[in-house]
Design brief:
Number of helices: 10
Strand order of the largest sheet: 6-7-8-3-9-10
Order of helices and strands: EEEHEEHEHHHHHEHEEEHH
Radius of gyration: 19 Å
Shape: globular
Strand content: 25-35%
Largest sheet: 6 strands, mixed
Mean pLDDT: 89
Helix content: 25-40%
Number of strands: 10
Low-confidence stretches: 271-281
Distance between the termini: 24 Å
Length: 281
């Protein structure tokens, strides 16, 4: 892989509660090169979300504690940055697309109000200033970038007035407001129908190609990874058990756990073919 925009090395995380401690990440290492699409895959409880929260600085001590490791963004160890610098990166150079639009959007404010407020705070962190009219123009611009057919109507709408796919696009627009270099997508489109999910995944893929973003996709579904990722990391019980370019991983997975994830991908027909490692693909 090329030089990494994001690089994690030997990350160990522990959670404590009721006088007991449990290590949940064990020597996790991964790389996300610039302008690439990387997937972090595993079942619920495998450690994907904890890894994501560690990257974004969302783990709270207590109950979470980072025991050791490095999380480097453009060569800077995020774990050693002063809190103010770390906070500045979040929502500016690194942005997050959350998986549940309804819980991530405030039902009592319009889309324009919510995106405009986020843009205002992002500009403040970057030392920029815009008028209300300029912020609104940027909101409409980014809604158009995520292929909203009528940005003005969407901006004036409340979340409940939008479909699930439209709300997901709003979350992507929200993440794009400050023109980040790294986009982390947590289970994008999970609650959507298959057709809408495919549209969201294609949108993310096109954003990487058109805007030069790096994308780290967190997902339990290898079915969404095959067509959208350059490189795949597979996690199980807090450990990266396998990693490889996507084509290689699907054609010749080395680990039984990876084979089981591939075998679990729904298919429209009963026919199977086998890769060189005997995995159903």
């Amino acid at each position: 892989m090329s030089e990494s925009l994001l690089s994690i090395r030997g990350l160990n995380v522990q959670f404590s509660a009721y006088g007991r401690s449990q290590q949940v990440l064990h020597d996790v290492s991964l790389d996300v090169p610039a302008h690439s699409q990387v997937a972090l895959v595993g079942e619920s409880g495998s450690g994907k979300t904890v890894t994501m929260k560690a990257i974004m600085g969302l783990l709270r001590d207590p109950p979470a504690r980072i025991l050791s490791g490095e999380i480097r963004y453009e060569g800077r160890d995020l774990l050693k940055l002063p809190p103010r610098e770390r906070k500045k990166l979040n929502g500016t150079e690194m942005s997050m697309v959350f998986q549940d639009p309804m819980s991530s959007l405030n039902p009592v404010f319009t889309i324009a109000d919510q995106l405009g407020t986020i843009l205002k705070y992002a500009d403040r962190r970057l030392g920029r200033s815009r008028s209300g009219r300029e912020r609104m123009a940027r909101v409409l611009e980014v809604l158009a970038q995520v292929r909203m057919r009528d940005p003005e109507r969407v901006a004036a709408s409340y979340p409940v007035m939008l479909s699930g796919g439209m709300r997901q696009r709003v979350l992507i627009a929200m993440a794009l407001l400050s023109e980040p270099k790294l986009l982390i997508a947590d289970e994008p489109g999970t609650a959507l129908d298959v057709t809408t999910q495919a549209q969201i995944l294609k949108l993310l893929k096109d954003l990487v190609a058109d805007r030069g973003l790096a994308l780290l996709m967190i997902t339990h579904n290898l079915g969404v990874v095959r067509e959208t990722s350059d490189y795949v990391y597979v996690m199980n019980k807090g450990v990266v058990v396998e990693h490889a370019p996507a084509a290689e991983l699907f054609s010749a997975p080395r680990e039984d756990y990876t084979r089981s994830l591939i075998a679990a991908v729904p298919r429209l027909t009963g026919g199977m073919r086998f890769g060189s490692a005997g995995a159903r693909v």
